[in-house]
Amino acid sequence: MNNNMPEISRTPSSRRDWATRIQIHGILLKKPFGHASNKWTKRFFLVKDGYLMYYDANEKKDYDRREFFNIHPKGVLPLGECHFKESREQQQPFCITIDSPEIDVSCSMCPNV
Asked: CB under 8 Å, gap of 24 or more: what pairs does 92-97 form?
């Protein structure tokens, strides 16, 4: 296993009720979608009930402290009909691209290593 990969946390179900339970969460780098750019932005991501939501990176410490997530993310991507593929990005060795036909968007992201 590559030790450079960031740790993605799975929320312990014993501490949270069904309404706030998150399947997976962590910090990733995200390229903007909607326009071409080479700038990567650090974001806090979480997956809940088939949706990928992202926030400013500092939301992670708030989430860890409060033990529930903010209901006002910077963005939401429904994962229902998304296609995931490995992608190659300059100086980012572990990237994925998510294509969503539901909302006609493509999002590239990679671990914050």
From this structure: 92/29, 92/40, 94/5
Nearest CA among 3, 26, 29 for reference residue 112: 29
Q: Name 36's Cβ contacts closer than 8 Å, sequence gap at least 6.
A: none
**C-alpha closest to that of 66 among 43, 46, 42:** 46
| The token pair that represents 67 in the structure block | 């033990």
Please state the pTM of the whole predicted model: 0.70
Q: Which residue has the tokens 């290593």?
A: 113
Write out pLDDT tens, residues 38-59: 788 899 998 888 888 999 999 9
